[in-house]
Amino acid sequence: MANEFPESREGTANSRHANLTSSLDLSTSLDHSVQTRIFKIIVIGDSNVGKTCLTFRFTGGAFPCKTEATIGVDFREKAVEIEGEKIKVQVWDTAGQERFRKSMVEHYYRNVHAVVFVYDVTKMASFQNLKTWIQECNGHGVSSSVPRVLVGNKCDLVDQIQVPSNTALKFADAHNMLLFETSAKDPKESQNVDSIFMCLACRLKAQKSLIYRDVEREDGRVRLTHQPDPKSNCPC
Ligand SMILES: Nc1nc2c(ncn2[C@@H]2O[C@H](COP(=O)(O)OP(=O)(O)OP(=O)(O)O)[C@@H](O)[C@H]2O)c(=O)[nH]1
Ligand SMILES: [Mg+2]
Fold it and tell me: Transmembrane region positions (predicted)?
C-alpha cells in the first residue's frame, strides 16, 4: 500500500544560519504544495542516541560509517508514495547537545507535523531524559493532536540493554505514543526504521486537517486553508 520511490535530499543549517526561519518551511511547502504535500517530522532526543543514523537509514538506506555531533539541524528528505499520492517526508535531524541547538529550538517546533522522540536502549539516562524533551516540545506549543512516536535505538547491542521493553511500553502508553524498538545499524531492522516514518506519514495523510490543502494568495499574502478528512485509514 505504502510504496517508496527513490528520491532523497539532504541539507543543513546550524546556529550560524539561524535566520533561515520559517520562510524556509513555507517556501518549500509552496513550491510543491499543489502536486506534493510535505510533512515536517522532527527527531528529538539526547546526544548520541542515534538520531542522525536513524534519519540517514530512512532517507539514504544505509548506516553512516562515521557521524559527528549534529550542529543546529540537518535536513533530509524522502519522497514516498502512499495510496497513490506522492508525499515528501522532510526529516529534521536535530542536535542533542544543548550548545549546538539552543539558537535553533524555535525553528525545530515551528509548523511541525509529527515528532519522533529517540532514546538509546543501552543508556537509561537517555530514557529518563525523555520527560525533559517532551516538556520542551509541549512548551513550544506543539498540540497534542500532532502525532508523536517513541523510538528505542541500538537494539543490536543485546548484551548492553538497560531499558526493558515493558518499561518503555508503559511510558509510551502513558504519553499516547507508539513504541518502536529498533537499530539504525542492523540492516535487518531497516524496514522497522522505515516504518517509523511511514507510519507517521500515513497518519498525517489520513489526518488531512494538518495538511496545507489549498494555497491561496490574497493581497500578496499566502493563506493556507485546512480541511479535515473524517475517513482516517491509518494502518498504525
Ligand atoms: N550499535 C549501534 N550504534 C549506533 C546505532 N545508531 C547510532 N549508533 C552510534 O551511536 C553514535 C551516535 O550516533 P548519532 O546518530 O551521531 O547520534 P545523534 O543522536 O545524532 O547525536 P547528536 O547529533 O549529538 O544529537 C555513533 O557512533 C553511531 O555509530 C545503532 O543502532 N546501533
Ligand atoms: Mg546527530
Answer: none
Q: Report how far ligand 2's centroid is from the alpha carbon of 43 (Å).
A: 9
Q: Ligand 1 within 6 A of 49 CB?
A: yes
Spatial neighbors of 4 by CB under 8 A, at least 6 apart, are 78, 79, 80, 81, 194, 198
Q: What pLDDT does residue 46 have? A: 98
- Position 8 scores a pLDDT of 56
- Asked whether 136 lines ligand 1 (CB < 6 A), one says no
Nearest ligand by distance to the CA of 64: 1
Whole-angstrom Cα distance, residue 69 to residue 94? Answer: 10
Q: Among the atoms of ligand 1, which is closest to the Cα of residue 184?
A: 31
For 133, the domain range is 38-206
Establish if 82 belongs to a structural domain.
Answer: yes
| Low-confidence residues of the chain: pLDDT under 70 | 1-35, 208-236
Distance 153 CA to ligand 1 centre (A): 9
Task: Tell me if 153 CB under 6 Å of ligand 1.
Answer: yes
pLDDT computed for residue 16 by the predictor: 38
Q: Structural domain tally of the chain? A: 1
- CATH number of the domain encompassing residue 99: 3.40.50.300
Asked, for residue 78, whether it belongs to a domain, the answer is yes
Three-state secondary-structure class, residue 194: helix
β-strand pairing of 148-153 with 114-120: parallel
